[in-house]
Amino acid sequence: MQDEKAAKIASFFEMETLNKGDLIIREGKTSKKSYFLESGIIRCYIIDLNGEEVTTRFYSAPDFLNDYLSFFKQKPSEENYEVLLDCKAWSINLENVQYCFHNIPEFREWGRMLLTLNYVKMHKHMISFHKHTAQERYENLLKNHPEIIQNIPLKIIASYLGITKYSLSRIRKNIS
């Protein structure tokens, strides 16, 4: 991409500081922004039928995140996005995203690639519940995202892996 096009795209983003504990997207509310994380970790979670929080996704810098259905369809989100580690993020609103999609072909191609990569991540995570053991899922997370293992409470990691925090403690003990 040419420098002037990259600079034009960058001009649509605003820097934000997101604090630990903030909910940047709330279930039942419509997502108004898309974010690029420069630093920090965010989790996406739902409340299950038993009233328990279940982590469905982690975003750790550098990463791009939004609730695609809520953001692009302007419908209420079905999930919560919580800041787990203070973040420096760059945000862009829907109007500016649409402008870039319609006027900057490189942005459109990047957006298509980003959507595909996010689909692949979600699909692999879903398949892992049926093809891998809990220990294999943990080892994969440890290998690919050690920053999550090092900074996030076991209860949250366990919910992402689909196990109890006690099972996760046993797995960690077996590995060490």
Automatic annotation (TrEMBL):
Domain of life: Bacteria
Domain Cyclic nucleotide-binding span(s) in chain numbering: 1-98
Pfam entry (one): cNMP_binding
Cited CDD domains: CAP_ED (cd00038)
Name recorded for this polypeptide: Putative transcriptional regulator, Crp/Fnr family
Naturally occurring in which organism (per UniProt): Tenacibaculum jejuense
